[in-house]
Every structure is written in C-alpha cells, then in structure tokens.
Amino acid sequence: MKYVLVIPDGCADEIQSSLGGKTPLQAAHVPGMDHVAQLGTVGLTDNVPESMPSGSDVGTMSLFGYDPKVYHTGRAPLEAAAQGIELGPDDWAIRCNFVTVQNERMQSFTAGQISNEAGQALIALLQQHYKNEPCWQFYQGVSYRNLLLYRPTDKPAPFSKETFTTPPHDITEQLIESHLPTGPGSEELKRLMFESRTLFADCEANQKRIARDELPATQIWLWGEGRTPSLTPFQSRFGVRSAVITAVDLLRGIGRLLGWDVIEVAGATGYLDTDYAAKGRAAIDALKNGMDFVVVHVEATDEASHEGHADAKVTALEAIDREIVRPVHDYLKSQGEYRLLVCPDHPTFLRTKTHSHGFVPFAMCGTGINHNGATTYDEIAAKTTGDTMPAGYELMPRFLKK
C-alpha cells in the first residue's frame, strides 16, 4: 500500500464576495481534488485545539497523528530540528523573524520578503552585538525566518510554558503593543526586540533595500519559544517508511523528529512562486524509490491569505491540483493499492489575514475507502456528509488503517 498526504496550507476559508459568493476552494478549478471526493470520503476535521494558538506547528502535528496537547512544546524547537541544531535539556529555541514595524504597526511580517543575503548580514550584526552574552545564539534560516537559541551559561533559562508572543503574521497592520511578549522571561525578549531597532536603523543591508525601494527590516520579532518535544517515531507507530516534501523549516523539523526522510526540491520557495510541478515529481520519485508514505506540503495558499489576495489563493489551489494532486493520483492508481488524502492544517482567512481555529475539509480515497456522497472538495460539501472529527489527530490512524 502506498500513501500520500497533500497539505494545501491554510486553504480552508470563508465565502468571499470577491469570488462570487464562493470560498477559494469552491471558486478554484480543482478537478483532481474533486475526483478524490467523488471516489472516496469527504469530511471535516479540527486540527487545532481551541486552547492552543492556531498555526502549522499545532495543526500539522495533529494532522500527522500526534495530539498537540500532549506533544507540542513550541514552534521554534521544531525549526531548530530542521536545521540540525541539537538542543540540550535546558536550552530554548525562539523564532526570530525580520519584520517591518512602522508607526508601531506591523506593516510586514516578512520585511518585504527579505532576501537571504540581507538576512545573513543582519544575523551577523546581531551575533556580533551579543558576543558578550554567549547565552544568546542567532541562526539564519530562509528569508525572514530565523532562530534565536538561549543556552544557559550561569543561570537557568527564564522562560516557561506561560511565555508567549503573538506570531507576527497574525497582526498585520495592527498596533504591536498588545502583542509583545508576556509571561516569564518576556522582559528579556522585549529588550532584544527593541535593541534590534537601533542596530538595524542605519545598517548597510537596510540602506541597500531602501535604495531599491524595498521595505527595510526595522527589528526582530521573537515568538514560538519552546524546548525540544519527545515524539514517538512515526514508523514505530504506523509501520511505514515516510518522507516529507516542503520548503518550510517547521515541517522539515517535525519530519526529522518523526524519523522521516526530508526531500529537498530545487525551486521550492515556500511562497506563491514555488515550483509546484517539481514537488509533484519529487513525490512520485519518492514512491518509486521505496517510500510507503509521502507528505507534500505547500505553503503558497497560506501566504496568499496572509497577504489578503483571494485571486492568488485560487491560483495557488489550481496549481496544487494541476501539478501535484492529479499527477500523483495518476501514478498511485497505476501502481495498485493506495490511499490519497488532501487536507489543510488549519483555516487562514483572507478577511483577517491570520490563522484561525475551526474545522477544515478533508478528502481521501483509495483502497478500502468508501464514497460518502460528496462530489466536490470544499468546505460546504464537507459539511453535508456528516463525517466530522473533532480530534484531528485521529484522522491519520484512520487514513493508514489497513
């Protein structure tokens, strides 16, 4: 049996007047996803407990079959794992975004999709500035996504599970004051965030961006703090050899912690311009090369929502369908027994430009999966079937059950 999960990140949404009273999934031309619905089961699953912040760290952990209320310790430790950074038992990892804050409002949570080159210069600047505070260690990621590690030297870390900062992508165009760090250790995080403003104000990397009429990175934003979780290996639980295809460090990190192969794809950007077809080909190659279960994650739909672009979200959904779902499904059908699942991790509403709680639609088909009446894959069709899973982490065992 071969299994594939396709995750159109944050694709679940509300009805949009700009799309003729349809959701993006309804408005998009997605015959491949609709075919999955017509062959199999469509329903609703809730991947993010109401008591936890909505995001891909919680949503995908649930989608992979792990109760986030038991296993989740924070987003940043998962991204540290993606970079091969080992955390000691007392170490903390913290997401370190480059952002643009103007007039105390979050103008851009990506600092205008800052380049890796500019990001490297800013990380070097930060590391040099804090060289006399060895507990702080900065690591460059991709574009605006970076990490800060706190490794205790002469005293324990000041943080706890009550330490919290609102993710920057959830507060676009909002005043930042009420979203700054709170809880144990928050004063230290705020100190670094505000000191970075002075460091970045006249730095060469930002001056070059301004000269090109690009947004500068005005400061760092620290969030997603936590320690490394202890996850039971996926193969031990489900007996399948697995791989993940993604451009996002968070998913790479979860994959590595679960014991999955992480497949790097040239042209996978984690943005709207990602090479969808290359991801589809990589999934098929992984199956040909002996993988039992392949996860294909696409960030583009989530990015479109964060930017409030309904048309871009529809375009991304159509590309996922055309370049990933359809060719992968065709290959699976040619090889014998298989199962295919399409499901986002959480809703991301165009209206709010933020992640949200609530049910998302899933569609799965293949060997042993019966049709339950839906003919399209979308939020409205999923509500009509009556197949509802309030605990999202129960979907994966159901999908892999033989």
Describe this structure in words.
This protein has 402 residues and is α/β, with parallel strands linked by helices. The chain folds into two domains: 2-72 and 231-400, 3-Layer(aba) Sandwich (Alkaline Phosphatase, subunit A), CATH 3.40.720.10; 92-226, no CATH class. Helices cover 36% and strands 20% of the residues. The protein is built from 15 helices and 15 strands. The protein has helices at residues 24-27, 31-39, 56-63, 68-71, 76-82, 116-129, 186-201, 204-211, 234-238, 249-258, 276-288, 300-307, 310-334, 379-384, 395-400, and strands at residues 2-8, 41-45, 92-102, 105-108, 136-142, 145-150, 219-226, 242-245, 261-263, 293-298, 338-342, 348-349, 354-355, 360-366, 388-389. It has an eight-stranded mixed beta sheet with strand order 9-8-10-1-11-14-2-15, with helices on both faces. Strands 3, 4, 5, 6 and 7 form a five-stranded antiparallel beta sheet that branches. A two-stranded antiparallel ribbon has the order 12-13. A hairpin with a 2-residue loop joins β3 and β4 (105-108). α12 packs antiparallel against α13. The model has no long low-confidence stretch (mean pLDDT 95).
Report a brief summary of the structure.
The protein is of the alpha/beta class and 402 residues long. The chain has helices at residues 24-27, 31-39, 56-63, 68-71, 76-82, 116-129, 186-201, 204-211, 234-238, 249-258, 276-288, 300-307, 310-334, 379-384, 395-400; strands at residues 2-8, 41-45, 92-102, 105-108, 136-142, 145-150, 219-226, 242-245, 261-263, 293-298, 338-342, 348-349, 354-355, 360-366, 388-389. The radius of gyration is 21 Å and the shape is globular.
